[in-house]
């Protein structure tokens, strides 16, 4: 029954390896922050997380440019 014991040991070793790999890969703050920046200013290419911030940015940094159509209904 040596193979049965080896199989169990191999499964435990693989589970531990997969857990370490997931732990080291899964919690990256930079990647999460970058994924949250979904709105991009068409003028200066800076990125914002939400439409409210995007509208505030656009009104303060680019007052002479017309407001983009996606920001028309957003309240700042």
Low-confidence stretches: none
Instruction: Report the sheet-strand fraction.
Output: 5-15%
Fraction of residues in helix: 55-70%
Query: Would you count the extended β strands for me?
Result: 2
Arrangement of strands in the largest sheet: 1-2
Order of helices and strands: HHEEH
Query: What does the main sheet amount to?
Result: 2 strands, antiparallel
Class inferred from helices and paired strands: mainly alpha
Number of helices: 3
Shape: rod-shaped
For this entry, what is the oligomeric state of its chains?
single chain
**Cα radius of gyration in angstroms:** 24 Å
Mean pLDDT: 86
What's the end-to-end separation, in Å? 70 Å
Domain C2H2-type: 39-61
GO cellular component, one term: nucleus
GO biological process, one term: regulation of translation
Region (Disordered): 1-32, 50-76
Short overview:
The chain contains 3 helices and 2 strands. It is mainly alpha-helical and about 80 residues long.
Task: Kindly describe this structure.
The protein has 76 residues and is mainly alpha-helical. 58% of the residues lie in helices and 5% in strands. The chain is built from three helices and two strands, in the order ααββα. The model has no long low-confidence stretch (mean pLDDT 86). It is found in: Cytoplasm; Nucleus. This is Zinc finger protein 706. InterPro entries: MBS1/2-like, SERF-like_N, ZNF706/At2g23090_sf, Znf_C2H2_type.
Question: Helices, strands, pairings?
Answer:
Layout: H1 2-26, H2 29-36, E1 39-40, E2 47-48, H3 51-61
Antiparallel strand pairs: 1-2
């Amino acid at each position: 029954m040596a193979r049965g014991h080896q199989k169990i040991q191999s499964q435990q070793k693989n589970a531990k390896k997969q857990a370490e790999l997931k732990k080291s890969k899964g919690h990256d703050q930079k990647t999460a922050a970058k994924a949250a920046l979904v709105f991009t200013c068409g003028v200066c290419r800076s990125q914002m997380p939400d439409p409210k911030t995007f509208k505030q940015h656009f009104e303060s940094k680019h007052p002479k440019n017309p407001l983009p159509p996606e920001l028309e209904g957003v309240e700042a």
